């Protein structure tokens, strides 16, 4: 049973690495991920992979709003998010937050963003809270979620 979990966790790292990749340069993305884990280790964290998984777990949204057209009007309808999309959104927000910063290397910013996400702070966590606020504000339209 634990072998399946380990395979799943390495699959998550591989998937995240693919999201980091630009222009099909996988070797560069792998180097960035290695440097990121080294940066996390250098910041005094014991296990960089546990920080990585905790960060993803904290950022993955359980609910989001999707536009739905009803009778000529478009409503923002809160809906549950599937597991694959949760990983995609979490990775997208973390990477976008790290890429938006200028100055040092991307791996350093990515490491900082992962540590902040594991501690429930940072730009990616703020993005998740914004999505939850939108879902809460539009919960009256949840009745339109049925298909």
Describe this structure in words.
By secondary structure, this protein is mostly helical. The chain has one domain (2-145): Ribosomal Protein S7, CATH 1.10.455. It has helices at residues 2-20, 26-42, 48-59, 83-99, 106-118, 123-137; strands at 63-70, 73-80. A two-stranded antiparallel ribbon has the order 1-2. Strand 1 and strand 2 form a beta hairpin. It is elongated, with a radius of gyration of 17 Å. Residues 1-7 have low confidence and may be disordered.
Taking the alpha carbons of the first and last residues, their distance comes to: 36 Å
CATH architecture group name: Orthogonal Bundle
| CATH structural class | Mainly Alpha
Structural class: mainly alpha
CATH superfamily: Ribosomal protein S7/S5
- Placed side by side, the strands forming the largest sheet appear as 1-2
Give start-end ranges of low-pLDDT stretches: 1-7
Helix content: 55-70%
Mean of residue pLDDT values = 87
The major β-sheet equals: 2 strands, antiparallel
The total of beta strands comes to 2
Order of helices and strands: HHHEEHHH
Q: Radius of gyration, Cα only, in angstroms? A: 17 Å
How many DSSP H or I helices? 6
What's the topology here?
Elements: H1 2-20, H2 26-42, H3 48-59, E1 63-70, E2 73-80, H4 83-99, H5 106-118, H6 123-137
Antiparallel strand pairs: 1-2
Short structural description:
It contains six helices and two strands. The protein is mostly helical and 147 residues long. Mean pLDDT is 87; it is low at 1-7.
């Amino acid at each position: 049973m634990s072998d399946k979990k380990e395979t799943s966790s390495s699959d998550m790292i591989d998937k995240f690495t693919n999201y980091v990749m630009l222009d099909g340069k996988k070797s560069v993305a792998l180097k960035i991920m290695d440097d990121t884990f080294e940066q996390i280790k250098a910041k005094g964290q014991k296990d960089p992979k546990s920080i990585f998984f905790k960060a993803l777990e904290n950022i993955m949204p359980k609910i989001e709003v999707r536009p739905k057209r009803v009778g000529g009007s478009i409503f923002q309808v809160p809906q549950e998010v599937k597991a694959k999309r949760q990983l995609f959104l979490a990775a997208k927000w973390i990477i976008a937050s790290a890429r938006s910063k200028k100055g040092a290397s991307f791996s350093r910013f990515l490491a900082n963003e992962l540590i902040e996400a594991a501690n429930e702070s940072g730009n990616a966590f703020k993005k998740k809270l914004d999505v939850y606020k939108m879902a809460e504000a539009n919960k009256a339209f949840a009745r339109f979620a049925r298909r």
